[in-house]
Amino acid sequence: MTRAAYRVRAKVWLYPGMGGWHFANLSPKQSAEIRGRFGDSARGFGSLRVDVKIGRTAWKTSIFPDRRSDSYLFAIKADVRKKEHISAGDTVNAVVRIR
Q: What's the predicted TM-score (pTM) here?
């Protein structure tokens, strides 16, 4: 059951470490609302379970709090990036649904 959905427009960035992880951040305003509404449901590392959809591709993942940006972020898996032709620096439109 979906508890809330957020439309996210974000620039994809590459984590500067090993692994080639690509991430997108929710806005600080959206993140503050999510923290207020669902923070008590957070799991390890402050994560919340979500469904994300970019283009025609949807997947289950988690959002994590990012202290540097004071917002939540989510990883964009390699198979999603390939299907949707996404690279670091691209701006994506996503729907993030809190589960």
A: 0.92
